[in-house]
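Module 6 notes. Inverse folding takes a fixed backbone as the condition and produces residue identities as the prediction. Think of it as a translation problem where the source language is geometry and the target language is the twenty amino acids. Below is one complete input and output pair. Work through it position by position during the lab.
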């Protein structure tokens, strides 16, 4: 006896998943509802195991907002330096907070990919950050004001990313965390990372591992390039044209580029 799957049943289950995802509560709705009672094996969490600030009858002041189960080291460091606090330290702390925020904003979001698919999710990520994206067999680039682009907010056929230009990536360029948004782009052949100063050996290695089988053109001029970056490029099987900064009198970089040319004789290298 043979078993036959009902395609309509499979489609209904996938449709139900996407609908449930779209109906998830936002962070603001969750915060407005307040914390839910914690349960352990279906039983209320013991009172004696709660942090003292969360126990009934304990006094709470306005400073209790800084009391956590695991206090933030940054907050503790700032509070300990209050007697010797200077404007220079405040500016340094604020600059570090901006860096952490930008890293968080560039992280790969699995939920975004679950809703849009890898290609359309990449279009949203890069166009939101002042980059240009070209789809397969498309004559024009997708770029400009994100409010006027009107990209689909659900998975849509036909969005196959073939080229990404990160020359104008906002906030001084894409970082290691942002490069993960290039994964699963099976039609990506052209990538420009020109003048992205945060792209270093770790970023090049990530691109080589994710997109080395399809990427044919790569521009890494103006990036933080070292000998390790050249060695990582050897892993890119489909690479045909490479643009990088002139190594000048750096003997190690010159030797590494020569080894790359010997390893990949069909690769054209343009040092600008």
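Target side of the pair, the amino acids:
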């Amino acid at each position: 006896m043979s078993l036959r799957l009902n395609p309509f049943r499979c489609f209904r289950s996938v449709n139900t998943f996407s609908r449930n995802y779209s109906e998830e509560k936002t962070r603001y709705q969750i915060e407005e509802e307040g914390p839910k009672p914690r349960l352990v094996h279906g039983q209320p969490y013991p009172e004696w195991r709660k942090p003292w600030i969360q126990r009934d009858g304990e006094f709470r002041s306005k400073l209790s907002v800084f009391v956590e189960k695991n206090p933030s080291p940054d907050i503790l460091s700032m509070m300990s330096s209050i007697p010797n606090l200077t404007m220079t330290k405040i500016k340094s702390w604020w600059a570090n907070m901006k860096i952490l925020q930008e890293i968080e904003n560039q992280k790969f979001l699995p939920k975004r990919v679950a809703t849009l698919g890898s290609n359309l999710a990449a279009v949203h990520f890069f166009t939101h950050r002042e980059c240009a994206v070209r789809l397969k067999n498309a004559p024009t680039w997708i770029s400009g004001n994100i409010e006027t682009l009107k990209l689909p907010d659900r998975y849509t056929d036909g969005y196959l990313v073939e080229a990404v230009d990160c020359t104008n990536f906002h906030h001084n360029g894409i970082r290691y965390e942002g490069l993960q948004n290039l994964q699963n782009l099976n039609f990506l052949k052209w990538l420009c990372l020109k003048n992205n100063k945060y792209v270093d050996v770790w970023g090049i290695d990530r691109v080589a591992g994710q997109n080395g089988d399809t990427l044919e053109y790569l521009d890494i001029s103006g990036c933080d390039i070292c000998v390790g970056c050249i060695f990582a490029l050897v892993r890119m099987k489909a690479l045909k044209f490479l643009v990088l900064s002139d190594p000048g009198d750096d003997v190690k970089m010159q030797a590494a580029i020569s080894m790359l040319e010997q390893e990949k004789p069909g690769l054209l290298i343009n040092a600008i």
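Reference fact for the lab report: The longest strand covers residues 161-165.
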